[in-house]
Amino acid sequence: MPINLQMPALSPTMEEGTLAKWLVKEGDKVASGDLLAEIETDKATMEFEAVDEGTIAKIVVAEGTDKVKVGDVIAIIAEEGEDVDAAANAKEGGEKPKQAKEEKPAPEKSDEKSESEPKKEEAPKQAPAAKEAPASDGDRIKVSPLARRLAEEKGVDLSSLKGSGPGGRIVKADIDAAEGGTAPAKSEAAAPTPAPAAAQASAQPAADDFEIPHSSEKLSGMRKTIARRLTEAKQTIPHYRVSIDVNIDKLLKLRSELNASLEPRGIKLSVNDLMIKAQAVALMQAPDSNVSFTDDAMIHYHRADIAVAVSIPGGLITPIITSADTKSLSVIATEMKDLAERAKAGKLKMHEYQGGTASLSNMGMFGVTTFDAVINPPHGMILAISAGIKKPVVIDDSVQIATIMAVTGSFDHRAIDGATGAAFMKAFKETVENPLGMLA
Amino acid sequence: MTDKSYDLIVLGSGPGGYVAAIRASQLGLKTAIVERENLGGICLNWGCIPTKALLRSAEVYHNMKRAADYGLAAENISADIDAVVKRSRGVAKQLNQGVTHLMKKNKIDVIMGDGKISEKGKVTVKTDKGEEELAAKNIIIATGARARDLPFAKADGKRIWTYRHAMTPPEMPKKLLVIGSGAIGIEFASFYNDMGADVTVVEMMDRIVPVEDEEISKFLEKSLKKQGMTIMTGAGVKSIETSDKGVKAEIADSKGEAKSYDFSHVIVAVGIQPNVETVGLDELGIEPDERFHIKTDGMCRTNVEGIYAIGDVTGGPWLAHKASHEGVIAAEAIAADMGKGGHPHPMDPNNIPGCTYCHPQIASVGLTEAKAKAAGHDVKVGNFPFIGNGKAIALGETEGFVKTVFDAKTGELLGAHMIGSEVTELIQGYTIGKTLETTETELMHTVFPHPTLSEMMHESVLDAYERVLHM
Fold first, then answer.
1. Among A115, A36, A118, A116, CA closest to A77
2. Residue B396's CB: how many other CB atoms inside 10 A?
3. Which of A146, A156, A169 to mutate to test the interface with B (most CBs of B within 10 A)?
4. What pLDDT digit, counting tens, does each position of A275-320 carry?
5. Rounded distance, CA B168 to CA A103, Å?
6. What is the pTM of this model?
7. In B, which residues are within 8 Å of A149 by CB distance?
């Protein structure tokens, strides 16, 4: 039987995507694990790997096609021993009657095999079924409509779940359990309707009306996602901001010392890496800011996963340094470099940018003196880091020069009260100003 | 006396027990079933099936009386209660033989007699030939339940009846008092009302069929009153005195004012109690709940290893299909434990449908609107009346409605409540939907055949989302 290769769902919210590039062509032999195509979703470009073995009989969806629905057939793979031409035509529903006749020998040719082949196919399927069958069986994820909807709303990755329903089907209880047990993935956390944003957009006067010279660019998936999520954040999260000035002289000194000793290992710490660490350490010291607000529960996180805003062509993405509170600075630096590079190339995997417990946005490199950031739901807070600027400050009753960095935290007041937010900012300042603590 | 050894012995052959035995046998378990009276239990011999046969007679009679509405003539019609009962007994007998055949076909040993668990893994059966001792790796208790007595109105079979007497009445009652308006009470009230008796129903709660949605209770009360029934809610029977002439009942109404009424017969339908006394629970240390039902987990296990319980003996809802489903779960659980490949999945009580075959019929599944709200759901409710359905009008059955309850946030189908002609055949649609965890979307996108009563199920869903078409 020829295998229909379907548009994969690369994230729980993905409904359609762009088939950016084919990495194989018709006639190529592929094995499980081979890269077949690059697929662009609203969030990133991802590689699509082969699950089955065979020969690419036909490419159904040409590269560059956008809005390909999840589940649509994008290519046909002929299994080993199968007539490639026949396979390519088989799924087209008798396109040319003349050819249909010529195809006849093909099924006959495979007759000898047809006896053993179905068995070969069924056997492995039955074996897992004897125990609790996995919810996902190749392309098909067994899931109830309600569970699918809840997973989308709550950002639960269906492919990561094991179903408890009959035949391993994912049911509502499994989503509830998954949601309660792990940090909710950040996508779509509380976005039942993107409608308000869309409605507003169309209500804006078009540039056309004023004859201003302009060009119009179709919104990318990423741009739409940014628009929707940040509109939702600003509309649903009561933000408040707390700013503090941090003296980073000691931190800069420590950084240059560390970098000198790390040089042989080829590692270079950036100020940003130190900020990631400081935020994580401060979150562990002020854990009431390491939380998420949900409709019926407060989620208290027991480790600090920092989502770091990275500017990429056409938008931004927030790769995550997990367990930043316990990772060494050199590990953070190495991971961040890798994540940022792959983010810019659009090659992040879903789990690398979904989740996290709090976010960090650093615009110091642009020399900004102060700014605040929009909370990235379901996180309870985001830290905005400005440039370290040499300023006259009063230290021990005398005016001295120190490098001062303005830091502003935006907090979700539903989850984090003012004093709690301030306590975190204090902990952050103390961590940065006494940076040796971050090494221990 | 030969000692016999089994993988599984089932005590009781009602719809729970015999189904458990069949499933166990299918899974390769050596199985025996012990029954003290009739294969098929109450359901088949004295419950679900024979009452449906009676109610069918009542329905045909009712339709004959309104033949003129359909342009037909039926004159001098009458009902012969003895013939009606005879037909009902014939139906029960046919099905009883069917179960006998099923046991044989599935190679299940049937042992007629009183079974008792003498110790863990041992069952003693008192047969008419003496005592027989059986060994079993697993035991399922499926001994069912019986009608609960009113202390001051013990059933005598003459003037005071339980459901059992009501099914084979010594005579046609003229003026009947039905105590209790649950499914059993209301079905008999409806039957005898259709057959021409003057019927009064007394219910302690503030509405009849109190487990159903409030709108259903209200609608049914109105309909039954229109058919000539007297309904007293919030009322209680204080005393019953029987004589050769009939029954004197003192009934306190909802204001607490007691008055004496005369009836020819009384049906007591105030609930049921589990049959646990002779099973040997105490000796084994099997835990009952406060109402003497056997406590079980989702896989029908009792607190004693190797002993399972299913059906009425484990508590409500006291429905044959609940018992059968638990029978399958228990058999699967046992087979899984024995490494014979069972796949037990616990049942969600919210997915058990309930049907009452009064006239008009009631069928429901899941949460009532009030219960859904009490459970903290924001609800969306749809309602579609029979009068808006083409098939209902063609049938001349325009009384009733279909109500659906959804969670406003998730679109989960929380409950469905129907009253009217043939709704007991329709409810399975929503039950499948609930079991598959359907949301409003799938139901809206389903093509319902025209012209059928089932279209009302579609319309009710559409109505919940303000998209109803034929209203």
1. A36
2. 12
3. A146
4. 999 999 999 999 999 999 988 889 999 999 999 999 888 888 999 9
5. 71
6. 0.59
7. 410-411, 439
